[in-house]
Amino acid sequence: MTALLSVEGLQTHFFTRDGVAKAVDGVSFSLERGQILGLVGESGSGKSVTGFSLLGLVDPPGRIVGGTITFDGAELVKGGEPMMRNLRGKRIAMIFQDPMMTLNPVLRIDTQMVETVLAHEKVSRAEALKRCREALVMVGIASPDERLQSYPHQFSGGMRQRVAIAIALLHKPDLIIADEPTTALDVTIQAQILAEVQKLCAETGTAMIWITHDLAIVSGLADRLAVMYAGRVVEEGETARVIERPLHPYTKGLIESVPQGKTRGARLQQISGMTPSLLNLPQGCAFRPRCSRADEACLEEPALDEKLPDRKVRCFHPWTLDPVADARSAALAEKARSRTDAIVTETVP
Ligand SMILES: Nc1ncnc2c1ncn2[C@@H]1O[C@H](COP(=O)(O)OP(=O)(O)OP(=O)(O)O)[C@@H](O)[C@H]1O
């Protein structure tokens, strides 16, 4: 199958007074229709800049300096702003951590949703309103007419985020880029929204990139994972397989720092050391100073290679020979495998 989105060697750099911050430096992954990709990594690893690059929303002092973004056969880096403007909001939509980045506080929901439809499509106001109602129902809002007549401040945080997701869905996009959209919500609401998003992607064929620092969230949501460290993808593959048998020491460290039921109360493993400054990266592998497996070979920069079928890893010493996944890996992998069973069908009144 041809990928809906294929990102190859993407580089987005920020030209600051203090030097060049290579926020995204050789990021590659691909995504098929209806698939969910979890883009994970610690703060500052370049996840959001990757998302903004795909939408052509990187402002100076940043710019894309290399690589290709192929979306449904069109190469967006070469196509530049005119091509990206055409796709933005319509075929590629974005959901932010703060729903108020999408919502206008002084307009009723029906006004802003209807205007969004009419801005891109020649349909009647009645048809636009019907579409808005349908989009709200899709995100689990059971009384759309009532909600449409409300202002954003009359909603809870979870409800506002649902509305922002509904707005992203209005043009039936092929791809949604979601940047930590549930981080500020409580766990129950988060779980409901994740389940609805999963159902939506399966039903509509919309693909999604879910950006998060929280591996536990994407382990139950994403089909595929791309793990980022210091501007690079260090591991990419099918979620259950990556979690069951992480190959990159950084991925393994992330998994070991996720609290799990069985190990609750036990001391969590933290990845020692700090993420490096992008202005002063260590020589060779950027993870080297924090890595227990590093040696002099790691003074060279490893490439992102296919070390197992359908599994790319950027490491000279991956954990290929580690046969037994630890308890945390096994539990998370189980969650990833059973994720479709866990879909919450409950709707919100
Ligand atoms: N406007 C900017 N000017 C200069 N550097 C920037 C700018 N925006 C981002 N960067 C650089 O890019 C790096 C990666 O930022 P990004 O927001 O993508 O990280 P992230 O992985 O999404 O982390 P977080 O979860 O904290 O948002 C930053 O640490 C910073 O060095």
From TrEMBL:
Keyword Transport tagged: yes
Location of the protein in the cell: Cell inner membrane
GO BP terms, alphabetized: peptide transport; transmembrane transport
Residue stretches spanning the membrane: none
Record domain ABC transporter: where: 5-255
Keywords tagged on the record: ATP-binding, Cell membrane, Membrane, Nucleotide-binding, Transport
Topology of the protein relative to the lipid bilayer: Peripheral membrane protein
Protein name in the entry: ABC transporter ATP-binding protein
Family: Belongs to the ABC transporter superfamily.
InterPro entries: AAA+_ATPase (IPR003593), ABC_Ni/Peptide_Import (IPR050388), ABC_transporter-like_ATP-bd (IPR003439), ABC_transporter-like_CS (IPR017871), Oligopep_ABC_C (IPR013563), P-loop_NTPase (IPR027417)
Cellular component terms (Gene Ontology): plasma membrane
Keyword ATP-binding: yes
Single GO molecular function: ATP binding
UniProt main location, coarse: membrane
Domain of life of the native organism: Bacteria
